[in-house]
């Protein structure tokens, strides 16, 4: 069910400022790909171009191609809304809808995709919460506000919300940066499980995390202040962390950066 | 284990904050406490004054204050009641609210989420400006333009929907409950729109992005993230508007026909309100008349208080879902 992503010659701009330049990569289905690199190098920007979330910022635009199973997400006549329904996203800070209950949060995306019977929604909510390893913790309080959960639970709730609409791809923008180590571990375990159903792309500042969870890693960097970010190197994760081909990559992962 | 924290110049950090407290904290605390107490004292003094002024008139009243539908406090046997006035106040204000809130929320959403940035700036400024127009201007507009203008539409409503009691009645007039409510609606619209806009602008970006990332269209984002988050604020704005509509004096005094009926017919030449009645009758009022008007003012005060308490109750009922915790 997951599909290959092919990016070629992608540039992204904020107004006149070019944030990332000439990014090309192929991401295989049912793998976890990690994006690492210093702050401001365009990892998150690039991630957001993959589900057309970049362009929601005023003045932001994208040039280049992103093919999902051969179809260009930026092709004419492609609705950003339908792209985002195929490519889900989890954000840096857990952002459950504060006005909704746990149940409503998970069901939020389903409601967008037309009417469904109550029993069907119940089933999907349960499967999604189980898929996010949250079911046992919340099954007795589905009607309680989602904002009342702990940070780690909220983030898993957001993952449940994202997978409830059965996307092809799951984008995660530093999903653990606001979480404690135990919650982080829970999310990392979850990612390994979700890999069988989804293609996962994660931006992380935590090098150990990239090494632990990902199959392939891309290292992003920029030539200097005000320059656009680029992919310096992309390879098997084990190779990036043991024997990178670029000196900049090695400097970054060994902490000799800058 | 007690670790001592030192500031850069070597002194204890705790000691420094203590010395600071004695210098700035105490006077400020007394000043703010004093201001709070002064406010309560002024409120209490006003309330006492009003009650004291009202009691002799209420004693002299031969009719039931809450049931009588006339206002004759200057007669030898004074008879007056706020039944019709209170009804007119609440009815006209509610009609105004029903007409104003949907439009105001629409205007606020347009400014906060749909309009291009430059247009939004201009529109926001215009709305703020409208909110500052004195009510007598709205009243003059109502009586010189809107009342004559409304005769046509009112007749149309009466002819086609006259079987509904709301639009029924024998005579259709420009100076009607509908016209007064329309003027009130136009008056309270800017303030509701201005507050709603501020509330909608405060919806965290993260919530809107969460909805967008699920594949929501712009309208779905608004329904999913913006409106629920802004709900308490919009309710507060509506209550502020309702309070303003109920307390509005000069605009409705110009338009209302100063009748004393309780009637749901919004097209007929009828209508009155507590505030309009005070404005109309104060000049000719004797001792008892003044007391009677003050008593009616107290009733208006209580109605406004109840409305505000009701609004707080509605807002508080879903507090745990309000987003305040997030």
TrEMBL record, chain A:
Domain ABC transporter positions: 5-247
Keyword Translocase: yes
Pfam families: ABC_tran (PF00005)
Keywords from the UniProt entry: ATP-binding, Nucleotide-binding, Translocase, Transport
Molecular-function GO terms, alphabetical: ATP binding
Domain of life from the UniProt record: Bacteria
Keyword Chloroplast attributed: no
PANTHER family: ABC TRANSPORTER I FAMILY MEMBER 17
NCBIfam families found in the cross-reference section: 3a0107s01c2
Protein name: Phosphate import ATP-binding protein PstB
The gene coding this protein: pstB
Automatic annotation (TrEMBL), chain B:
Domain of life, per lineage: Bacteria
Membrane topology of the entry: Multi-pass membrane protein
Positions of the UniProt region annotated as Disordered: 1-20
Keyword tags: Cell membrane, Membrane, Phosphate transport, Transmembrane, Transmembrane helix, Transport
Domain ABC transmembrane type-1: 86-311
Transmembrane segments: 30-52, 80-110, 122-151, 171-195, 233-256, 291-311
Protein location: Cell membrane
Entry's family note: Belongs to the binding-protein-dependent transport system permease family. CysTW subfamily.
Protein task: Part of the binding-protein-dependent transport system for phosphate; probably responsible for the translocation of the substrate across the membrane.
PANTHER family: PHOSPHATE TRANSPORT SYSTEM PERMEASE PROTEIN PST (PTHR30425), PHOSPHATE TRANSPORT SYSTEM PERMEASE PROTEIN PSTC (PTHR30425:SF1)
Protein name: Phosphate transport system permease protein
